[in-house]
Amino acid sequence: MIIKNTKYIIKFTIFSMLISILSCILFQSCSPDTFSIYLDQLRTVHCQRMSKDYDKIIILEDNNNTIEMQDNALLSMKYSGDTQFNAELSLRCLSGQSIFLYLRTTESNFNHEKNIKIEINKEYSSVMDADGHIKRVDSIKLLDRQVQKLKIINDASIYTVMLDCDTIVSARTKLPSTEYLIFETLGSFHLFGINFDSNLDWFMLDETNKKS
Amino acid sequence: MKIVLPALLVIAFCLSSCSPITRTVEDVYTKVHYDTLTTSETVNQPGVRKGGVVYPASQKVEVKRETLLEDSTVTMRYPNFIRLGFFESIGTLFNGGGGNSCDNGLFGLYSLISDNRNDKSVFSGGIYRFGVGEWRLRWFHDAENWTYGFSGIEMLLPENVEDKRMVGILPFYLRKRWYLSDNIPYRCITLSMGISCLPSPYFNISGSYDIGSIGGLNIRAYAGVAAGIATDNGNSVNYPYLGLGCSVLDFLNKQDETEHVWEEYNHSSWDVGLIQFGFLNTGQKSSAFGSTNSKYVFNGLWIKIVNANVALPFANNKFYIGTSLVSALSCSEKESLFGILPLRFGYFETVLADELSTEPFVELSYYPFTSLSVCNKLNLRLNDLINLSFLVGYSQGSISSGVLKGWSGMLADEVEHVSRFYIGIGVGFLDRLFLPKELRYNRNGLPQ
After folding, report:
1. Cβ contact B113:B266 at 8 Å
2. What is the tens place of the pLDDT at every residue in B183-218?
3. Which helix H or strand E contains B338, and what residues bound it?
4. Who has the most CB within 10 Å: A109, B45, B291, B434?
5. Helix (H, G, I), strand (E, B) or coil at A38
């Protein structure tokens, strides 16, 4: 009788442990601040809602590759493990004035100063690096409700940002490359057609031998 | 197979990258190094050259440019838990009307020592939790301060009758906290809802006013109701309770503390640990180990289980107040002192390069022995988990009346008054001595 009871207790104990552990795994996986964009079977972009109000960043149901960022939203995109990349995405300004793009920074050490900050607004585009130097381009600007193609190239010490076919900046920096792009909005924006490609293979061949 | 599969699941959970204690984030930074090598070589043509004729340059210049990318991976480790605790004990006031008091005493701890029961005792029941873990629950649009978690083992004793004892293995709890203070030790009101499946199915709903944690110490005032089926005989049990509890080695993080790396973690104590023990020379012929052979150097024993010495924020933060779950001293075969939650007041001074420190202290124990100890402990910190110590001290005390009678068979020959000088050595295991720079009071620019 005692042995039979012991067996039951062991079985039920294991069952109870299983229920608790599975509950914990279930709750642990519930992280509303993170989501992933699967580009293909190998490439994933990990996104984190950095603004406290998660509702300001919405993944649109019709396409997981379309994100709506509302006013004062902060979003990081991490192309995991790769710092040398070409990123392309389309953006559409639904309302508001500006979108900010931060390069050469990380989500955990993010602040608004020690990085490369690119502002694209309806009147001009501007670039501010860690030393505070500002470049302003009046001819490249945000167009209301139109789709514009944003291209970012992280290429060793050179970073290039293009809007449609116009180059906002292509410059050299001493800041180390990172895996992150961080977007901040003053207004409502759609980001879609997000694609990241590694340019490391190409870069490794970039060894120039000049003979004269 | 029925056991192997769950066991594998448990192992998989423990080994999963989603560690219950530490969350790890890795960021890669790539630095760029450019290297340009210019080689110049001049080869003069042999023979005689005619003047007035332009020849190809005899200097060859080769420029070789290389770019080196150097990846630097930065690993950051963050605390991943809201609460992680070793032991919690609650003394409860109502006993379900049965009149069989556990006589649990303050915080429900005294019944662990004495079998002597007083049915008029104020704290007639108890709730005990071993191994408490809580993690952030991100629901209701990531509403703040919700947690889920479980205790390793939980015991609910409405009174001193086994018929009414409810035991839960890994009971599941949901908790919501409302913080009343942002400073350590936090003050908050907690609502908790728990359910246990086995061996006793029961639920336990309670509200509590919590103070802590500081140095892993917490004090809680509870009001709640528990209902379920007793473990031993299947009787239904339900009772409301009011209780006063304490917990040790029980660390509570606010949600934003989990977003700072471990290096920035707030430490308020000079010492927090699981166990300290050692051997003493008390100059007695008989030994605490049962031998009467006086040739052995050590004939006494000291042990402290679950220690916390919390720094006091004045006089360079070197004074501390502390306690242990159990502090015991055995001077010879028949001379022993021990106390539950003794009060300790001391001074912590670093002697040599952080690792060597001295710690004079006074320890007052009030239950089950009334005793006073004056000691100095010299600590050698080996690493975060282990340290060695050299102890010199004097203790005197006597047994409090009315306790330990339940152990009369075992302790019949005990001397009821002890007064001894001693000298000894010891080891702190899973016991962390903090460096002065690690104390939150001594840090600048980090979260307090």
Report:
1. no
2. 888 999 999 999 888 788 888 999 999 998 899 999
3. strand B335-340
4. B434
5. strand
Check whether A69 has a pLDDT greater than 50: yes
CB contact under 8 A, A23 and B148: yes
CB contact under 8 A, A32 and B62: no
- Prediction ipTM score: 0.80
| pLDDT per position as a tens digit, B16-54 | 445 678 989 888 998 888 888 888 888 877 777 777 777
Closest listed residue to residue A124, CA positions, set A169, A86, A65: A169
Q: What are phi and psi of B18, to 5 degrees?
A: -80, 75
- Band of residue A205 on the pLDDT scale cut at 50, 70, 90: very low
Q: Which residues fall within 8 angstroms of residue A140, CB to CB, at 6 or more apart? A: A120, A124, A125, A163, A166, A168
**Angstroms from B239 CA to nearest CA on chain A:** 24
- For residue A199 the two structure tokens come to 């340019």
The answer, yes or no, to whether residue B67 has pLDDT greater than 50, is: yes
Smallest CA–CA distance from B62 into chain A, residue: A211
Please say whether the beta carbons of B146 and B140 come within 8 A.
Answer: yes
Which chain B residues are Cβ-neighbours of A116 within 8 angstroms? Answer: none
Q: Cβ contact (<8 Å) for A84 and B169?
A: no
What are the residues facing A47 on neighbouring strands? A35, A77
Tell me the two tokens of residue B252. 């509570």
Q: What tokens appear for A69 in the block?
A: 């960022």
Distances (CA, A) of B429 to B385, B393, B420, B424: 6, 21, 26, 16
Each residue of B227-240: pLDDT tens digit? 888 887 778 888 88
Beta strands at B172-179 and B202-214: parallel, antiparallel or unpaired: unpaired
Enumerate residues 6+ apart whose C-beta is below 8 A from A172.
A157, A158
CA B113: distance to chain centroid?
22
Q: State the Cα–Cα distance between residues A9 and B200, nearest whole angstrom.
A: 10
DSSP-assigned letter for residue A144: B
pLDDT, one tens digit per residue, over B317-346 is 899 999 999 898 888 777 788 888 899 999
∠ Cα A141 A147 A148 (to 5°): 45
